Amino acid sequence: MGIRVTPVAHDFVAEISGIDLARPLAAADRDAIQAAIDRYAVVVFHDQALTDEQHLAFARHFGPIHSSAQRARHQGIKHRLAIPEIADISNLDGESNVLAPDAKRRLDWLANRLWHTDASFREPAGALSLLYAHVIPDDGGDTEFADMRAAYDALPDATKAQVEPMIAEHSIWQSRGQLAVTRYTDEERATLPPVHHPVVRTHPTTGRKALYVASHASHIVGLPVPDGRLILMDLMEHATQRPFVHRHRRRVGDLVIWDNRCTMHRARPFDTTKVRDLRRVTTMDVAA
Fold it and tell me: What is the side-by-side strand order in the sheet with 255-259?
């Protein structure tokens, strides 16, 4: 029996079953998964059992891999995970203890609760994110996704014409600054300089247009900063209306893949004194 793709919402979010991702991936299954990602933008695999090595090996089927930017902006600390291509999306320190409330890395990852797009602050930016759940608290810690294709489609024609030529500057320090998290060294800041991306992107495979804005987007190039930020705020408010948003309720063994080129996402609150261990691999947007 081949894999099964079950839509969760019309053309946004699907569940894929009938496959063990720890096993070698057949070419036909890889192509079917890619087709589902292109159509739905977010796909969910339940009940998987993956080591870090298997997680990374599966991700490599979908493009070259970013090294984790966490290591660039958190220098001089012990990192918990051995593989640099796997981002530690947990509330644990290098000894696997729950982070203290004032820990630098804990304050940094609070920005995951802002609407964001993985690695939009890098060049090349992020394409697919593959997030695997090792440990989930009993309550909370869900993830919300916004369909930026549908959000673009719903814009008035005049707004589409206004924003399509625009270029936004993206910086990870912009998203952290929104929460007054600024405790970074000059050396750390220098590793992740600002980058520019269009406000409206055309997906390289599907040809669909999507908004490309989120909390890393600082301002519109060529406009006064306040004017550009108001435009970005309006677009994000529009894109996060309930008709465009899906909430995924995580459970252990879930692998969720989303396309950063046409989605935004944010983590939802949970009891941060309880262990939450998620690990993410992000592919590079080499098709941009």
Answer: 4-7, 14-17, 42-45, 255-259, 126-135, 277-284, 87-90
How many domains does the chain divide into? Answer: 1
Tell me the pLDDT of the chain averaged across its residues. Answer: 95
Total count of residues recorded for the chain: 288
User: Structure pTM?
Assistant: 0.96
- For the chain, what is the largest distance between any 2 Cα atoms, rounded to a whole number of angstroms? 57
Question: pLDDT tens, 32-80?
Answer: 999 999 999 999 999 999 999 999 999 999 999 998 877 778 777 888 9
**Identity at 191, one-letter amino acid code:** T
Structural domain including 95 reads 4-284
Convert the pLDDT of each residue in 135-173 to its tens digit. Answer: 999 887 899 999 999 999 999 999 999 999 999 999 999
